[in-house]
Amino acid sequence: MSDLPESTDPIRTAALLEGQEEERQRLARELHDGIGQLLMGIRWHIDQLADASFTERQRNSYQELQQLILETIATTRQVAFDLMPSVLSDFGLEAALRLLCERVTRPGSLTVDFQSNGKNQRLPETAEIQLYRITQEALTNALKYAQASRIEVHLSETDLYQLVLRIVDDGIGFSVEELTRRAQVQSGLRNMKLRAELLGGRFHMESVPGQGTSIEVSLSR
Asked: Which of 136, 88, 86, 82 is nearest to 112 (CA)?
């Protein structure tokens, strides 16, 4: 099952996707360089009070405040990572996908395994971002709807200089009829297809009820 409804205006959709990426990068920088630094400053000032003389009630409130600021910093970092992980620009697609899979894994309930044949070199920035977003969208769909216990992400380069990205889950799958009733899933799949086509690549999806879903993107290097 690889046919998806076409976007009514692919050029407009492509422009919207490009605009979204620019906004994500801006917000990620603001979170890291602006809000992130402010939170670290607040944490520093809080830590300076560690040896202050507190009543038991004040000490409990102080410890709660410490925990709250740590959780806020962690959440801010996670949001910045979701918007635009620095590892993608610093180390490339393979490293970013490996880290993404580690973060999505839920011990005891969901395993997300990343595999690569080790041949992958750095790609143009646009290609790395689009392939990362495709993977991110596929994992989000699997987490929300597939009821999967295992997801595999494969990134490989063939001898024909073709790059292949494949995401496979062991979830419940879905039929064409179900897809038409799930507007969010349909929109996500359409965006994945468009991202692949923007790179001159090919998008293919297979899903069978009870047998999971596989998504494959291939493009020439």
From this structure: 136
Domain 86-220 -> CATH class = alpha beta
Q: Outline where DSSP puts E strands in the chain.
A: 111-116, 150-157, 162-169, 202-207, 213-220
Q: Beta-carbon neighbour count of residue 213 at 10 Å?
A: 26
pTM of the model: 0.77
Three-point CA angle 181, 170, 195, nearest 5°: 60
Provide the pLDDT for residue 34: 87
- CB within 8 A of 72, min separation 6: which ones? 39
103-126: pLDDT as tens digits: 999 998 999 999 998 776 788 988
Closest to 150 in 3D by CA, of 100, 97, 113: 113
Q: How many C-beta neighbours within 10 Å does residue 119 have? A: 14
Question: What pLDDT does 2 receive?
Answer: 47
pLDDT digits (tens, 9 = 90+) for 124-142: 988 999 999 999 999 998 9
Sign of torsion over alpha carbons 21, 23, 24, 26 = positive
Q: For the chain, what is the radius of gyration of the CA atoms?
A: 21
Coil, strand or helix: which one is 203?
Answer: strand
Q: How many whole angstroms separate alpha carbon 83 and alpha carbon 92? A: 16
Query: 13-21 — which CB contacts under 8 Å span 24+ positions?
Result: 13/191, 13/194, 14/194, 14/198, 17/191, 17/194, 17/195, 17/198, 21/129, 21/133
